[in-house]
Write a structure and sequence with these properties.
By secondary structure, the protein is an alpha/beta fold. It is built from 39 helices and 16 strands. Helix content is 59%, strand content 9%. Strands 3, 7, 8, 9, 10, 13, 14, 15 and 16 form a nine-stranded mixed beta sheet that branches. α37 crosses α38. The radius of gyration is 49 Å and the shape is elongated. The chain binds adenosine-5'-diphosphate (ADP) and magnesium ion (MG). Adenosine-5'-diphosphate binds next to α9. One of its GO terms (cellular component) is spindle microtubule. InterPro entries: ARM-like, ARM-type_fold, Armadillo, KIF11-like, Kinesin_motor_CS, Kinesin_motor_dom, Kinesin_motor_dom_sf, P-loop_NTPase.
Length: 964
């Protein structure tokens, strides 16, 4: 209790679903744990398959086949899930009926057709006077949810296992109601001619005898099952034609004693090998004619009943009390078909009208206390005796286990009890088991084993559930597939887009380079063309000029020949110029040349504009490329957003699978339960193993969760940008961390480090609160405590503590530090890093939940210190006193909140163990508190510890003497 500390968080639920545990005041949140665990696995309803039993060790009787071939013949061939249907039907028509609402007596053989089911009810005894005082500070170890037919067994203050029964009877259940749901259906089927058994199983003092054997002569309302059963039987038979006889026996140390004749103390069991009937011919059989005679019989038997007085309860017994009611009924005419197998009935035929006798047997067993011998204090038994005392009960347990497991061998011959019940327990019989439990947490172990016994006596009926689970699984799978498809489609689109961009860019580049190349080529061609033309025309001009030159020389010579002696020179000069100017040919040539040149110039100009044009288009293309780039960027952005969306979707998927679990849970229980309890139980069931095979089942489902979502993925979401996702993620981690089986995986995956980091990196108080809670849960193991210390966890927690406002945050931080305080090795370091100061700082918030954690931390610390001092490892004053904790401790030693007070009282006792602390304690006024504790503390262990401490300390003794 002291060192265990669990916090659970509502993951997807608003806070109104939180509830408060009576003892601690700490909300036990209805929490979603991420488990897809099979609810049917959790509920563990195991059944004695009576059909199987009938054909196996409990014997197939003629009656069996007749029963089956008779009214129940149809039902025998029903598909398995019909039993679920009929069960639901019964629940509706006769709520609270254990045995299927007495369907055997009605013409509706629907339920009678499913005989193979031991109905198990659990009944809680109210606190007795002693428990009122001794357990005043503690919550009951069980919590009942009768409307859900569930029982929660507390593992510690924070944690419980949930079990389902056919009926859950609270401490307020009336005897009448108990009779009606447990025994009445069995009695009705006995009146119909079937054998029936009602058994009460439980620890001594939990109310077996009260439930089964109470006579109720003082208080009518207190009448137990035996008395009420006889009343119903008497009312249901006609004493003219029918007969009732009873035997009342006790089975002790494998000997059957007659409670109606104490001298008859070794009755043997006789089995008819043909019919399988079991009888006790040696036992006294008393004919019952009226109720009064029956009460007399019971009283007589009670007087004789051997009661091994035990420490627990003086009325309790180590023996089994067995009441056997034999019923013989005459059945007329057509009804006789049902029991025509009964050969003895033929002897009763006396007239022409055939009549048969229908025999039936009701066995009511008040079993011996289920506790192990040593605990009951039945001292003085030899080992052999002890073995023999327990033999019948353990043989019964073994038979139930074997039947529940469908084992081919049922060890029915191992004990007298199982031999005796052979024909009453299974086969044609209808059987009800009421298991009784007490509320006290001190007997949690016995209560747990009683509950497991009851659970094994029920059978898994999970056809419907399995189908539903399949539906939800497929929903989750469909979502997964959709998500995968989306991701793939996105990838595909991305690829197509990128390819298109690439293609366009390449195309543009190619066009550009083509244009450039063409331009250069064209330019070069033109240039060389005009150069060539130009050169050619020059050459032509030169040729012409040379020709003209030659011609004019000839002409001159001719003239000289004609005009000798005349002044020719000036003329000659004139004639030389004139021909050029006047030569029309030359002129034409020149003009041609000029036109040519103009044409070339025009050509160049055209090319130039072409070039400009091509430059412009180039610019255009590059702006196109810029645009495309931008589109590409946009797309990348889009992709990022999509990826975020996928992240969110994944977290929603996570949520959906949890909600699916929750819905399935609700559907399983008929859809009528509230969300809170559904989730609450889901959490517990998924978190806690309830038997060996469910443990593996749960582990599997957690493994499945990790596999499906991936712990790393969840942890990576702790750093998500979206604050909602972050909060979700930390809650998921916190819930996973609440389960011991996950803690190692979380720490391995770096979860602890991430959680510690969140304390600095996040400003959000919710995140602080949840992270601190998760750290508190992880801080339950020594290895993790060391890891937290090594990563500076105390400082981080202290910082969080100093800035937090919300009491729940402070509670989580204080809880985490309190867990660290319980580690012997970390004392110095914890104190050195301000752990104690941080705890004391948190008392500024006066919330009792916070104070209780602070007190727990101090008590843990004091306990470790006290251990260290006792081992001689530590000397000198307590570090708690050094750090100034004493005034607060003394002030709060009598705090009105029990949870605070209890821790402080322990802390004081630990501190007072050592003389080194005595002076400070005396000066601080702690002695008065110690005296008060030694007198008034409701817990005996603390009270006597305080007393011992006071009387053994010289300083305290001296101070008390001084104070008179
Ligand atoms: P068991 O037979 O299992 O040893 P008992 O039937 O003798 O236990 O019960 C022990 C004590 O508790 C008796 O004093 C009984 O009257 C009381 N008791 C048991 N169940 C109830 C109940 N449901 N309501 C009131 N008192 C009960
Ligand atoms: Mg008893």
């Amino acid at each position: 209790f002291f060192f265990f500390f669990f916090f659970f968080f509502p993951t997807f639920l608003p806070s109104q679903f939180s509830r408060t545990l009576p003892l601690t005041g700490i909300p036990l949140a209805a929490t979603v744990a991420f488990s897809l665990s099979d609810l049917s696995r959790c509920s563990h309803s195991l059944t004695l398959d009576l059909a199987a039993m009938a054909t196996s060790a409990f014997g197939t009787t003629t009656a069996t086949s007749n029963y089956r071939n008779g009214g129940a013949a149809n039902a025998r061939n029903l598909p398995k899930n019909s039993s679920v249907k009929s069960k639901t039907g019964v629940r509706k028509s006769a709520p609270g009926s254990l045995g299927g609402g007495g369907a055997a007596s009605s013409s509706s053989k629907d339920d009678a057709g499913v005989p193979g089911r031991v109905r198990v009810a659990v009944r809680l005894r109210p606190r007795n006077a002693e428990e009122m005082v001794a357990d005043a500070d503690f919550a009951d170890c069980v919590e009942l949810q009768p409307e859900l037919k569930r029982l929660k067994l507390r593992k510690n203050n924070w944690d419980s296992d949930t079990y389902e029964f056919d009926e859950v009877l609270t401490e307020f259940a009336s005897q009448k109601r108990v009779y009606e749901v447990v025994a009445k259906p069995v009695v009705e089927s006995v009146l119909d001619g079937y054998n029936g058994t009602v058994m009460a199983y439980g620890q001594t003092g939990t109310g077996k005898t009260y439930t089964v054997g109470q006579l109720g002569d003082e208080d009518m309302a207190a009448r137990g099952i035996m008395v009420r059963a006889m009343e119903d039987i008497l009312a249901g038979v006609s004493l003219e034609s029918d007969s009732i006889s009873v035997s009342y026996m006790q089975l002790y140390m494998e000997t059957i004693q007659d409670l109606l004749d104490p001298t008859n103390d070794n009755i043997s069991i006789v089995e008819d090998h043909k019919t399988g009937d079991v009888s006790l011919p040696g036992a006294t059989q008393v004919e019952i004619r009226d109720h009064h005679s029956f009460l007399e019989i019971l009283k007589l038997g009670e007087d004789h009943r051997f009661a091994a007085n035990t420490k627990l309860n003086t009325e309790s017994s180590r023996s089994h009390a067995i009441l056997m009611v034999n019923l013989r009924r005459s059945v007329k005419g057509k009804d006789s078909a049902v029991s025509s197998e009964n050969s003895s009935s033929l002897q009763t035929v006396k007239s022409l009208k055939p009549s048969v006798v229908r025999k039936a047997k009701l066995v009511v067993v008040d079993l011996a206390g289920s506790e192990r011998i040593h605990k009951s204090g039945s001292e003085g038994h030899t080992l052999e005796e002890a073995k023999s005392i327990n033999l019948s009960l353990s043989a019964l347990g073994k038979c139930i286990n074997a039947l529940a497991e469908n084992s081919p061998h049922i060890p029915v011959r191992d004990s007298k009890l199982t031999r005796l019940l052979r024909d009453s327990f299974g086969g044609t019989a209808r059987t009800s088991l009421v298991i009784t439990v007490g509320p006290s947490p001190r007997h949690r172990g016995e209560t747990a084993s009683t509950i497991m016994f009851g659970q094994r006596a029920m059978k898994v009926e999970n056809m419907l559930k399995l189908k539903e689970e399949f539906d939800y699984k497929s929903l989750s799978r469909r979502l997964d597939i959709q998500l995968d498809k989306l991701i793939a489609e996105h990838e595909r689109q991305q690829k197509i887009f990128e390819d298109e961009i690439e293609r366009l860019t390449a195309e543009a580049e190619r066009q550009l380079s083509d244009a450039e190349r063409n331009y250069v080529q064209a330019l070069e061609k033109e240039r060389s063309k005009y150069q060539k033309e130009y050169l050619e025309s020059i050459k032509k001009l030169e040729e012409k000029w040379t020709m003209n030159q030659r011609k004019s020389v000839n002409d001159e010579n001719k003239l000289r020949h004609k005009d000798v002696g005349s002044n020719v020179l000036p003329n000659a000069k004139e004639s030389k110029v004139a021909p050029i100017e006047e030569n029309p040919e030359m002129k034409k040539l020149l003009e041609k040349e000029t036109a040519h040149r103009k044409a070339v110039e025009e050509e160049v100009w055209t090319l130039k504009t072409q070039l400009a044009e091509s430059r412009r288009s180039e610019a255009l293309q590059s702006s196109e490329i810029v645009k495309l780039r931008k589109m590409l960027d946009d797309e990348a952005h889009q992709k990022e957003k999509l990826e975020m969306e996928i992240g969110k979707l994944q977290s929603h998927l996570l949520q959906l699978s949890v909600e699916a679990d929750e819905t399935r849970r609700q559907l399983d229980s008929g859809g009528s339960e509230e969300v809170l309890s559904g989730l609450d139980s889901l959490l517990h069931q998924s978190r806690q193993p309830q038997s060996d095979n469910s443990e593996t089942g749960d582990k599997e489902s957690v493994a499945k969760l990790f596999e499906q979502v991936g712990l790393h993925k969840i942890l990576s979401l702790l750093e998500a940008e979206d604050a909602d996702v972050r909060i979700h993620a930390v809650k998921v981690v916190a819930n996973l961390a609440a389960e011991e089986a996950n803690q190692e995986k979380i720490v391995e995956a770096g979860g602890l480090t991430s959680l510690l980091k969140l304390l600095i990196s996040s400003e959000d108080e919710t995140i602080h609160r949840v992270a601190a809670g998760a750290i508190a849960n992880l801080a339950m193991s020594e290895t993790n405590q060391e890891l937290i210390m090594a990563q500076g966890g105390v400082r981080l927690l202290s910082n969080t503590a100093s800035s937090a406002e919300d009491p729940q945050t402070l509670r989580m931080v204080a809880g985490a530090i309190a867990n660290l305080c319980g580690n012997d090795k970390l004392q110095m370091k914890l104190r050195g890093e301000g752990g104690i100061k941080a705890l004391l700082g948190m008392v500024r918030c006066r919330h009792p939940d916070v104070l209780s954690q602070v007190a727990r931390g101090i008590a843990n610390f004091a306990k470790c210190e006290s251990r260290a001092s006792a081992q001689g490892v530590k000397a000198g004053r307590s570090l708690l006193i050094e750090d100034g904790a004493l005034p607060w401790i003394v002030q709060n030693a009598n705090n009105e909140a029990a949870s605070v007070r209890r821790h402080i009282e322990l802390a004081l006792c630990h501190l007072a163990q050592h003389e080194a602390n005595a002076r400070d304690m005396i000066n601080g006024g702690a002695v008065w508190e110690m005296v008060r504790i030694s007198r008034d503390c409701p817990r005996e262990d603390i009270r006597s510890l305080a007393h011992r401490t006071l009387t053994s300390s010289h300083s305290f003794q001296a101070e008390m003497r001084r104070l008179g």
